């Protein structure tokens, strides 16, 4: 008797090869992650009977909620992260594996490279998070994972790992909105309930304002119409000959420059709409640095002083826009609390301007701790809010890649 392909398997393979190459590739990637996790679940190093003495960092003490822990996984872009958080929102461990060195020469994140790096790092990162928390897999009550927004391949790696753990351990699976988690990092900073509030996420992919009625009820008030603030920092850094990521370098160099040296545009600043646009500002920096196309006037040489002045003037324009829109959002919503998160929120000048705004308006302002501004898994503590409200996800949960943007209001053309 021959060894022919079973009918079900053959049918499945025919369907598989009718899929696009991109889809076939990611099905194979996710299946590979599934097999790796199932295989390594039987390896003693993943069972963690005690702390790992050779790993850096002392394990924090357990709270009264030992045995009731949440594992959070983050892989939406170019950081592979895992954290263990107890029900009191104490972060017992927070492990982040960055990929900056992989993307630096490209001046930005390359999705294919990012997803391959996640595949290599996801299990070691989860393993180290559990070890650093002195936790056992049986201590987990649920697993939370960022499923949207983000890069499709990156999200799939994290989701597949979380699904497998949820299935094998028979614990709830929680779907985390990456952007809302950035705002929830402010609740982690405060150590108490901070809602309702105006929430503001300023990162590489997003510049979004929200009316946050509760930890799980967010209404998008406004967003960027093109580049996000963090993306503009990276692109301007490239124009000025600086390395990636550009935000920290521009902040450092701007401290040596004159923020009034060049008058750059502040798009939408004087309009009531709560939206942002940074592409025009980026182009203005390009022309100031390289010269205006068709102009007979040569550009000012990019001396270190000129670079510092351009960086300072650009940063001042961005911060004016961001703070101005926060002011408008507080006025329009009537909220008395402002929560700010995302990578750009680590900028010291921006944080100071926000503090000045809060004093002027007599509102409470909470900015996420700097270690929780960039992508991390500790902000996945938002999963506890979902679990306590009974909001869990099925195992056929899928990712929702892309960016979060507010759709423009369509006008009724029939009225002329």
Name the features.
single chain, 12 helices, 2 domains, globular, 416 residues, 10 strands, 41% helix, Nucleotidyltransferase, domain 5, five-stranded mixed beta sheet, alpha/beta, disordered N terminus
Characterization of this structure:
- The chain contains twelve helices and ten strands.
- It is α/β, with parallel strands linked by helices.
- The protein has two domains: 178 residues, Nucleotidyltransferase, domain 5 (2-Layer Sandwich), CATH 3.30.420; 188 residues, Nucleotidyltransferase, domain 5, CATH 3.30.420.
- The strands form two sheets. The chain has a five-stranded mixed sheet, with helices on both faces. Strands 8-7-6-9-10 form a five-stranded mixed sheet, with helices on both faces.
- The radius of gyration is 23 Å and the shape is globular.
- The relative contact order is 0.14.
- The N terminus and C terminus are likely disordered.
CATH class of the largest domain: Alpha Beta
State the shape.
globular
Task: Work out the helicity level.
Answer: 40-55%
User: What is the percentage of strand-forming residues?
Assistant: 15-25%
Measured distance between first and last alpha carbons: 77 Å
Rg, Å, rounded: 23 Å
Tally the beta strands. Answer: 10
Strand order of the largest sheet: 3-2-1-4-5
Average pLDDT taken over every residue: 85
Q: How many separate helices?
A: 12
| Count of discrete structural domains | 2
SSE series = HHEEEHHEHEHEEEHHHHEHEH
Quick one: CATH superfamily of the largest domain? ATPase, nucleotide binding domain
CATH topology assignment of the largest domain:
Nucleotidyltransferase, domain 5
- CATH architecture classification name of the largest domain: 2-Layer Sandwich
Q: Which segments are poorly predicted (pLDDT under 50) over 5 or more consecutive residues?
A: 1-13, 48-66, 409-416
Structural class determined from secondary elements: alpha/beta
Main pleated sheet: 5 strands, mixed
